[in-house]
Specification:
434 Repressor (Amino-terminal Domain); 6 helices; 72 residues; mainly alpha
Amino acid sequence: MDNKQVDNIIGSKIKKLRLKDGLTQEGLARKADIPYTTLTKVESGVIKNPSVKVIAKIAEALGAAIEDLVVK
């Protein structure tokens, strides 16, 4: 794994769970009650350390534990 992949473990886990649930980025953003742009930036790694509040909302929308998203 190169550094970029390591840096974006949270984003790639979110994307994997989102696709598994059959959600679009827009759909997940709505369900998590966060801005669409925030979700796309987290997924793509532009935002490397999203706030706990954002992670908690995304985790809840995906039916996942926060630990599932942040633990390597």
